[in-house]
Amino acid sequence: KFIKIAKTAESSAKMATALDKLEAISLKKLEYSVYKYSSFSSTYVPTNIQENKIADQSSRWSSETNNPPQYLILKLSKPAIVKSITFGKYEKTHVCNLKKFKVFGGLEEENMVELLDTGLRNDNIEETFAIKHTVGGRSFPCNFIKIMPLQSWGPSFNFSIWYVELSGTDEWNLIQPAIEWFNGHRVREAVRLCLKHFRQMNYIEAYEALQRETNVQLEDPLLTNLHKTLVEDGDYETVEMFMENSASNGFLKPYISKQEYHAEWRPLQSEQIQPGMRGGHQMCIDPQNETIYLLGGWDGNQDLSDLWSYHVPSKRWHLISRDTEAEGGPSARSCHKMCLDPERRQIFTLGRYLDTQYRTPENLKSDFYLYDIETNNWTQITEDTSMMGGPQLIFDHQMCMDVALRTIYVFGGRVLTPNTGVSEERTGCIPSLVGTSEPVFSGLFSYHVPTNTWKNLCSDTEPGTPELKSRVGHSMLFHPVCRKLFIFAGQRSKEYLNDFFTYDVDSGSIKLISDGNRRHVNSLPAAGFTQRATMDPNLNEIYVLSGLSKNKEKRDDNVQNSFWVYYILQDKWSCIYQNENTGEQYWNEMQHIEPCPRFAHQLVYDHINKVHFLFGGNPGRSCLPKLRLDDFWKLTLVKPTYIQLLQQCKVLIRTCRFQELVVKDGLEALTYLQTSLYEIIDHDDTNQTSEVRCELKLNTNKF
């Protein structure tokens, strides 16, 4: 457990070549027959899944019962590498649709591996899933595909599958070597399991004989050497030297890269003038110049029109403008959005919130501004973007920029209209709605800066795009390498959304990553909570800070922060930070250690120096509805360093040495504990010291 050895460059290159070759092959629909099934009811026979009749309610397989196991086993007409599976549906929602299911595959009926664990949405839109098709970096073929329903959308209802389509390749020049490699891989893995068992049981002769006859290596020779030094020779000092050499040679780097982040908050205090309390403000960051810009907001009584900059190295705030409107810029506002072009050093701002009494036709124009950082000049690009084919006046939308093509994308937000019949209570960027009138939401727009042109890419009422549901309070990030917008969560009327999808800005295609229902409730950020998101395109990671509940009634009961990381390439969420939830007393004690939960705050990320900055917001105190915050925080995400990891390894090694000495010589063990083991322990690390204490308690009866 001390070390993860990276695979050799040669084997990695071979794997990459094989995968690239498969990716280049065009996929085709694969023919199959229904080989076996667990049961069926009435006329809903298994073979119905081979025809896609969305209007025919009887064209489906339905199990006779929902008692497990229920399954369908499909046999391919010839072995194939299966890359995706598509499920067709009935034209209406149905209680028998699969909410949860698994897919297995393999060359033999009795020897299949899990390929997919997911579920279907309960709607009429077919869904396609990529399935596992590689083992050890190489593609493996299947003869059989097994679909195992686990739960239907209707409680206690039988399972129904309407249509199944498999896609992949069955070209023999690819399949034949894949079968040969996979069969050989299974043999090698079986031999390695035997070798592992023999060595663990100390059957040395059997171990050496099997290794000699098969010429199969159990592991990397370095690990074999480590096992001999530690287990057979008990040479603990040499083991420590081995770990030091491994660290210096970079062998620990892959292991460190897979470790979870640890969140470190630090308050940033300035003795100089700084922005006052506010929520609904906007911030953007210029990472090249390490400068943060802050514009406007709501202080609990009025909208603000000040513009600030914060220079990170000097830790100083600078008031650029006390009133941007007086200098030709935007009027006082909150719930607007900003984005920055770091190459041309320009800031764009769009949108704002207006109280109902100010929503006259003249005030409901969607003004659009540009701020030139070098010249300290404001320019009104247009008085009303809706007159140029852009959005109407909106608030709580999202805006981000494709710097390479100088294109701004605006998605969602609520359209401000006069006399809506909806009374509102300003609580931040998302007013509480009290009334029956449905709010109007804005769609997806693009703005091309060089030509000063807007384009409506998708309106909220446009049919055929159910995944692109407009919303407020969501997050939207642009990935400049894969050229996709990542859109997550939000709120639409009283519905809290938790879906996650991408929009390809070049092709216009939409890919649903998660509908929020397929995963376990604890495996992704919860719906109904304020979240702020940032992205590191170099690391392919998305960061989400989830805080206060958006539901006013539940706000006092959900005072908790959590920080999530989404690993784009692995399609994996991980919660790396979550504070204790112990009420007001806890936050009074922690006010200088971590920020309290809030909404209407701002979070920006410097992807060069890998740090986040958080400012202000609304703490949601029901007893102080006008209270806003002016605290400023720096968040650093850290992983174990080589030195820390090496120290942890040495603690394990010396603890093992101590356990051995306890059995042999209690006095020598006590001396070793007071010297060698004591000096290597990090006594400031409470987790490490408590673990060592537990180990000592287990061994006290052996003295």
UniProtKB/TrEMBL annotation:
It holds the Pfam family Kelch_KLHDC2_KLHL20_DRC7. Keywords: Kelch repeat, Repeat. Signal peptide: none annotated. GO terms for cellular component: cytoplasm. Residues 28-221 form the Muskelin N-terminal domain. It comes from the Eukaryota. PROSITE patterns: LISH (PS50896). The keyword Repeat applies. Coiled coil: none annotated. The keyword Repeat applies. This is Muskelin N-terminal domain-containing protein.
